[in-house]
Amino acid sequence: MPPSMKPSVLLVNPWIYDFAAYDYWMKPLGLMYMASYLRENGLDVRLIDCLDSFAPRTTRPAVEPPRPPRRKAGGHGRFLRQRIAAPPQLGAIARPYHRYGIDPDSFTAMVRAAGKPRAILVTSMMTYWHPGVTATIGMLKEILPESPVILGGIYATLCPEHAGAHAGADYVLTGAGEGHLDFILQTIMGLAPSWRPDTDNLDALPYPAWDLVPHADQLPILTSRGCPYRCPYCAARMLNETFRRREPRRVADEIAHWRGRMGIRNFSFYDDALLARPEEMAIPLLQDIIGRNLDADFHCPNGLHLREITPEIARLLFRARFRTLRFGLETTDGERQRALGGKVENIHFEQATAYLREVGYKPDDIAVYLLCGLPGQSAWEIGESIRYVRAHGARPILAEYSPIPGTALWDAARQASPYPLSEEPLFQNNSLLPCAHPTLTAREYRELKRRSRGL
Ligand code: B12
Ligand code: SF4
Fold it and tell me: Which residues line ligand 2 at a C-beta cut-off of 6 Å?
């Protein structure tokens, strides 16, 4: 069949609406897996990436001549953005609110150029980014009223009722997209599936369709689905029930593929637990990456497990050019560490830092996430954690707690919060510190942030 005769499908990575957003190696990985499955079924797949930082600006060309995107070496940088009014629910918060991503005129032009797709698949990330999803779907519906819109992804999975009531999609599908392919093809598009993903074997899945992304200065890699841990504040278990892995050699093959085919030199790992049981994945994968001499850098923006760092793993990470290391420590308070599931203790942090320093990492390279604003967590506890991390030669990064429906900490979060968290996901926004202890005022938090930067 010539390409134009194939039934077409449009995939959309929606805008982010928020007070703040920064492109820390962000790419719509789940959506691009879906794209590859649809392609395997012979469809003509198109993508609109609203978060493409390289897109030209068209809204005010006279005022804003095209500027180069503000990117940092290594594949991160600022999003394009436009100031917009905050949703009325957030009206009391005196902070600028933005639409992050391409401007609406560019979006409209791209949707018009997409022809008449048989279906439109929209992904979603943070629960509190739903206004961006709703706005995206609203414009799609205006321009292409006849194409059914299917919403999936993390917001759809964690808040299906809210999404069903507010997002404006014709279908809201929860959980892994692999399981919905038949429904999308047969029931929604009226097509007979010719290929089905083998959900028991991650190595049998095609690579994400990254060639569709208009610009890429980095690409994400996923070596697994799910997490063996069960931390009470985290949604991992609801997004993937079990922990499953690929073959390390196949992961290295994929990295080599994108290095050769698209010239990508920066890769970010999106795994929940990349270092867990290191003999299964981290050790063979790092050895393989080193052996292939790929001339590429690697980044781990999602928290790594400190307890898995041994002298050998530290050395392999350094030799394999893992440049961005971020670890989940969450707090240095022993009692809270146990209450949070006991995935790490201070001794693991101290050992890991020593091993990483020994092989050549500098204090600034060893970044440690500290959770802030957990129910019942005082400002003093956060201050102590910052002091401790800095004193041991690592860099604390404050990560504001985002309460997530369905997690074990959810009831405590609701009780601690002055906001109606269950009614409105906007209040799950980490920037609001929605469950902060009375001692953690906005002013105190600013001060802690300053201290975390060593100021
Ligand atoms: C990698 C990651 C990041 C990356 C960026 C990810 C990205 N895509 O750009 C980084 C490290 C930057 C990040 C940052 C943060 N993150 Co994060 N992140 C993740 C993580 C670990 C993986 C997401 C992912 O890509 N998974 C892999 C793909 C394959 O899965 P997927 O997108 O879900 O897609 C599948 C399905 O959803 C579905 N699907 C997807 N789209 C579609 C579309 C259709 C139509 C259909 C049918 C199906 C479908 O099919 C796909 C394949 O099975 C998740 C946890 C998790 N395990 O998912 C947390 C998670 C999303 N993050 C979370 C949080 C809290 C944050 C932070 C706020 C942390 C902080 N306090 O600082 C920040 C905020 C970011 C910001 N810019 O403001 C929370 C969500 C909170 C919320 N309220 O929604 C999660 C769930 C982790 C948690 N704590 O439980 N994150
Ligand atoms: S916080 Fe990390 S270790 Fe804990 S369950 Fe979530 S992904 Fe797993």
Answer: 227, 229-231, 234, 236, 272-273, 303, 328, 343
